[in-house]
């Protein structure tokens, strides 16, 4: 290619052209190269009478090796207190946040929740969240308010300190399942009421009755499964579950 490094075969063609007495411009046209490229190549490698293709090619390779900079070693990965690559932790946090957004959480609330889940303590102060997420304190405040309303995080105060921390409860997803079951129960009751109002034998009434039965059974199964697995996890050594299983029973949708 014009302007690129000459190949071994091109150098042989140059040598043949010089042996035939061709001018540099003619050799250049036959190789589709600038005349200046041929001139420099011949001048630095013995001139018109001393040019040898093999010698020229080896000399060029030697010069290229001398000019090549030594590879710069990659800097060691920055690790945290547990020896984890901080970039890997960041990547997980971003991927987890994206999944939370897909479940319907507002983006800022999802970012804050993902940040808390990626923290070994499960909690951070408002200042730490501002610094890590690079947003304003007002954005943190709005996201905290939303997540508190959804009972996905709670406030706690550091002993001996004035600032508050925002933390995830160990049973947060259990409570989320109960909230979903409560919503199902409300929809089921509304569907049953609609079936009675519109007439159980009418097409609309039968459709609503089926909806009500489906949501009732799914909600009951959801609560039963959530209570079972919460109790299993709460018996593990080191479990930090906040409530006793009986408290979960008290919150079961009626």
Automatic annotation (TrEMBL):
Residues 29-84, 234-254 are annotated as: Disordered. Residues 5-45 form the Transposase IS30-like HTH domain. This is Helix-turn-helix domain-containing protein. It comes from the Bacteria. Residues 104-161 form the HTH marR-type domain. InterPro entries: HTH_MarR-typ, IS30-like_HTH, Transposase-Integrase, WH-like_DNA-bd_sf, WH_DNA-bd_sf.
